[in-house]
Amino acid sequence: MAGKIILLSNDDGIRAPGLNSLAQAVHELGRVIIVAPENDSSAASHSLTMRRPLRVRKREKDVYSVDGTPTDCVTLGINRILKTRPDLVISGINPGPNLGDDINYSGTVSAAVEATMLGIPAFAVSLADYDGINFKVAATFARTFAVRLLTAAIPADTLFNVNCPALAAAAIKGIRFTSQGRRAYEGAITTISDPRGRRHYWIGGGKAIDNGGADADAAAVNAGFISITPLRLDRTNHEAREQLAREWQDLETP
Fold first, then answer.
1. Residue 18 and residue 132 in contact, taking contact as beta carbons nearer than 8 Å
2. How many structural domains compose the chain?
3. Do strands 226-232 and 56-60 pair parallel, antiparallel, or not at all (unpaired)?
4. Residues 168, 174, 179, 180: what is their CA dihedral angle, to the nearest 10 degrees?
5. Residue 198 falls within a domain, yes or no?
6. Rounded distance between C-alpha atoms, residue 231 and residue 103, angstroms
7. Residues 172-215: pLDDT tens digits?
8. Considering the domain boundaries, does residue 115 fall inside one?
């Protein structure tokens, strides 16, 4: 692995313990550079900061923080901070799973999406434990998966979303290659009032309700398996496109 360059990022911020555990796990695989948000940017999705300039702070050798989103961090890391393109980008380790529809909101996953858009192999890794105390198992598997991605061919325009159960290593049943399931939240919006009686709303939390079948990511994690979901950049519903092309030819043009 000598000479390999690995860029790390996350959405929980430069001081997040999951990021530190990840860095420790992969440091022997090559040169590890961290470019992460200065503050927590959870649920930032794939957003870029375009209405103000961004500040990059060098905290120590190969460790940088950006006062922006995870996507900002990855694009600046690859296009400005690093002089050589990285061989791999890893985002995480997120405390709490990124399953089903969570992927659409996740800054963790979006950092990996940005790397893939820029032509760099990438994966996001999350621990299905919101307390985020013990990242050892997830970090160890992230290292194993990183070695595979650094040495094997992967499908074009594909990133990987990895979710690890909050279990001891001996209790992990194995890995499953899964599909993205569906996840909704019951009670995710809380109504509160300020001291003047004005109504406000707090989005977040609630009870997760998973769907998607036995092959879905949540089903694997709930059964004690590490879930690996290959995601593609192309969001086109090709079956729908072909069907519409056959059946909706009578649409009138202006």
1. yes
2. 1
3. unpaired
4. 10
5. no
6. 10
7. 999 999 999 887 666 667 788 888 888 887 676 667 666 778 89
8. yes
List, for residues 26-77, the tens digit of each pLDDT value. Answer: 999 999 999 999 998 888 888 888 999 999 999 999 999 999 999 999 999 9
Note if the pTM is more than 0.85: yes
Q: Is residue 201 a part of any domain in this protein?
A: no
Query: Average pLDDT for residues 104-113, to the nearest whole number?
Result: 95
Cα→Cα distances 177→108, 219, 246, Å: 19, 11, 33
Strands 31-37 and 63-66: parallel
Give the mean model confidence (pLDDT) for residues 95-105: 93
Instruction: Give the domain extent around 55.
Output: 5-183+211-247
Domain of 176: which CATH number? 3.40.1210.10
CA 96 to chain centre: 11
Query: What value, to the nearest 5°, has the Cα angle with vertex 78 and ends 15 and 56?
Result: 45
Quick one: tokens of 14? 């430069």
Instruction: Decide if 203 is inside a domain.
Output: no
Phi, psi (5° rounding) for residue 20?
Answer: -65, -45
